[in-house]
Amino acid sequence: MAATLFDMAQRACIRNVMDMYDVGDLRYETIRPVLKRVTNPAQLRQIEEASPHIAEDDAELWQAFIRRDILKAESKLQTTRPKNPSSWWKVYRKLKREDEADTQAAEDRLKATLNRHKVDKGAKQTHIVHAVIPSGEKRPAWSSSAPRDKPFGNQALKNARTAAQTITVLKRQTAQRQAGRSVAQSVPMHQLSQLRGKVNEAPAHMIRNYAQKPGPTRPPPAVPQGQQYRPVFARQPQTYADRVLNSAINQTKQEQEAKERRLLALTSGSSANKPRPTAATSTSRPPTASAPQRRPSPVPAQRPAPVPTSSTSTLARKRPAYDPFLPAKKRRT
C-alpha cells in the first residue's frame, strides 16, 4: 500500500514538474525520476538553490543539458571537469557562452563572405545598353563596278588546285582572322585585369562627332528695362469641344435669323392688308398751310422695323437676343 502511494505521488510530481522549484529534504535518489523530467536549466538551478544537498549528485542532469544544447559536447566534457562536484552549473554556463560566441563568429564570417560574393557578382554583371553604339567606320557601299573579294573559307580551298595555292589560301585566312580579332582576344588574360578601366585614347567616331557639333552661341543682347517687349502668346489649337460649341452657336444664330425672317414676312403681310383712308376721312382733317407734310421714313431693305399689332405683338422683339460671346462695350469715362 505504501509503495502504491509513493508511485502515485511520484506520478503527480512528474505531471506538475513545470511548477516545481523546491524538493525539500528529499534525497536525490528519491526525487531523481522527477528531476530527470526538468527541461529548463534555469529551473534546475532554482531547485539546487532551494535544496543544496542535491547539487552534489545531479551531475548527470547537467551533462545531459550540455549534450543537448552545445555542439561537440563529448570532446568538451572530456577536457572540462569542475573541481567541486556541485559546480556543474558553472561548467554549463561557461560552455554555453563559448558556443554562442562561436555561433556568432560563424554568422559574421558567413555574412562577410556573402557580401564579398555580391560585390564580385556586381562587378562582373552584364549591363544591357538600349542604344546603338556606332563603330566609327563606314562600310563601302556595294556596287557592280567595285572589285569583288576573293572567296573565303571552304570555297577558296575547293578552288585551290595545287598545294601551293592551298597554302596561300590558308595563310590569307589566318591573317584575316588575326586582323579581325578584338583587343580582348589578342591581349593575354593576365593583362586584361590591369587594363580594366583605363582609356588611353577616345574612339575615332566620338572625335568626329565632337568636331561636327556647332560651337557655343552668344547670348542675345540684354534689353533695357523700359524697352522690354510684351510676350506674344500663340493661339492655342482648337479642340473638339470648341468645335462642338461653335457649331451649336452657329446653329442657334441660323434658327434665330429664320424666326426673324418669318416674323418680318408676317408683319409686312398685315400692313399690306390694312384699309387705306377714304376722301371723307381725308377732308375731315384738313392739313394746315403752316405745318409741312412729313414724308414717310424709308424702310430698310434688309431688316424693317416690325409694326406692333394685336396679333404679332407677342412675337415681335424690340431688340435682338443677347449674345454672351460678343465683346463687352467700353464705358465712357
TrEMBL record:
> Which example biological process does GO assign this protein?
transcription elongation by RNA polymerase II
InterPro entries documented for this protein: Elongin-A_domain (IPR051870), RNA_pol_II_trans_fac_SIII_A (IPR010684)
Stretches of the chain forming a coiled coil according to its record: none
Q: Which Gene3D superfamilies match?
A: 6.10.250.3180
Query: What are the Low complexity biased-composition ranges?
Result: 275-292
Segment Disordered: which positions?
266-333
According to the UniProt record, one GO cellular component term is:
elongin complex
Q: Biased composition, Pro residues: where in the chain?
A: 295-307
PANTHER family to which the protein is assigned, alphabetical: TRANSCRIPTION ELONGATION FACTOR B POLYPEPTIDE 3
Q: What is this protein called?
A: RNA polymerase II transcription factor SIII subunit A
Which organism does this record belong to? Aureobasidium namibiae CBS 147.97
